[in-house]
Amino acid sequence: MRRLTKKRALTLVKELDAFPKVPESYVESTASGGTVSLIAFTLMAVLAFLEFFVYRNTWMRYEYEVDKDFSSKLRINVDITVAMRCQYIGADVLDLAETMVASDGLKYEPVNFELSPEQRLWHITLLHIQERLRVEHALQDLLFKTAMKGPPPAQHQREDGPSSLRACRIHGHMYVNKVAGNFHVTVGKSIPHPRGHAHLAALVSHDTYNFSHRIDHLSFGEVIPGLINPLDGTEKVSAESNHMFQYFITIVPTKLNTYKVSAETNQYSVTEQERVINHAAGSHGVSGIFMKYDISSLMVKVTEQHMPLWQFLVRLCGIIGGIFSTTGMLHGMVGFLIDVFCCRFQMGIYRHVKTAPLNEDDTSKTLIPTENAAQ
């Protein structure tokens, strides 16, 4: 009974076979079929190879949500060089609540405003990258992927004599309230004041004013080497002593999560304006560099994503099965058309031979046996 049950089960399984085997005696191999198979296998290999590169590639996904973090501090990272001596200028932050933030985290370093040939080459390269970023927005995704978390690269010291140190490099970081504010560099050191703050500018001669500057780096939040900010590499040279430079910055909180780095930082967009201070002509104001920033209420989440393995296998099976089925169908259709053409061609030749008139020699040759038969 058990043997009969096994035989019935095996018979039932054989009847469900959707891939019946054809005996080899019924299979005919042709040169055209081998050529089509070779082309199909080559095409499968090429497309599978390209699909593997697509599987290895990643892309950035952008999501937007409301920023609910309003109690934390905002870090400002500054590296700016001003064409004035360090004792003549001061930098600080005044936020929207009229709170002056101490600039203890900033360092004043006497330097030469002119760059060395190597530094000038790097500066020109950075400006070219900034131009391409304005045109090719996809380059920002590449910067996100290649960003590395760690200390920023060390800057080269400028080998200048003491007499040539006529500029001041202000660099470092500050922590401010997460509200709109104004970071500025102007004449005189800042001092606290009951109504805000003030700068001791009365002791500085107007002949020494020169707010030509170069912004090597300006960012908000955690410093991520490899990311280029909109103001990095900006250089402004003024021929007038009383000049006001204004930068209006909109900060967008950003959560970056890639396979190399996971950090909370900020991106920003900027518009700029500059004008000469001339009270006689009605252009009032204070000479200096003013960076007025505001913080967006939306947060951007940037996540690096990768194609799942199951999706890669499904796409690979689709490529192989699709090419195999398509080439088999095309080969069958081409073979059928060739057979039909050859058959019609042979029938045309047969009809032409059958309906062609006989000449006199052929008629005499066919009549002689008939006369002999009559005798």
TrEMBL record:
Pfam families: COPIIcoated_ERV (PF07970), ERGIC_N (PF13850). The chain crosses the membrane at residues 35-55, 312-338. The keyword Endoplasmic reticulum applies. This is Endoplasmic reticulum-Golgi intermediate compartment protein. It is found in: Endoplasmic reticulum membrane; Endoplasmic reticulum-Golgi intermediate compartment membrane; Golgi apparatus membrane. It comes from Gasterosteus aculeatus aculeatus (three-spined stickleback). Plays a role in transport between endoplasmic reticulum and Golgi. One of its GO terms (cellular component) is endoplasmic reticulum-Golgi intermediate compartment membrane. Residues 166-329 form the Endoplasmic reticulum vesicle transporter C-terminal domain. GO terms for biological process: endoplasmic reticulum to Golgi vesicle-mediated transport; retrograde vesicle-mediated transport, Golgi to endoplasmic reticulum. The lineage of its organism: Eukaryota, Metazoa, Chordata, Craniata, Vertebrata. It is a multi-pass membrane protein. Keywords: Endoplasmic reticulum, ER-Golgi transport, Golgi apparatus, Membrane, Transmembrane, Transmembrane helix, Transport. Residues 13-98 form the Endoplasmic reticulum vesicle transporter N-terminal domain. Belongs to the ERGIC family.
